[in-house]
Design brief:
The protein is 0% helix and 41% strand. By secondary structure, the chain is mainly beta.
């Protein structure tokens, strides 16, 4: 005898909705207070001046201004170096 009902039943087909992650406001664009700059999982982009990291690692502007992305080498406590991308907001 069959262990599962014939036809119509499947154990596949489950999929989650996309989370719409990524950069929302690019380098050189204006931003207002509280606007989301980057939606991310983990810290691919690191918050700089006038930028706050939310609980889900989203980067949010603390002041109005112009968004700037820049790379910087960060040295860890054990001497390892890693190039990281920072996000800051330049006020007018």
């Amino acid at each position: 005898m069959a262990h599962t009902k014939a036809g119509g039943s499947t154990k596949l087909g489950r999929d989650s909705a996309s989370k719409r992650l990524g950069v929302k406001i690019n380098h050189g664009q204006n931003v207002k207070v509280g606007q989301v700059i980057v939606r991310q999982r983990g810290t691919h982009y690191v918050p700089g001046v006038n930028v706050k990291r939310a609980g889900d690692d989203t980067l949010v502007a603390l002041k109005s201004g112009v968004v700037q992305f820049y790379k910087k080498v960060k040295i860890h406590f054990d001497g390892n170096k890693k190039k990281m991308t920072f996000v800051k907001v330049l006020t007018k």
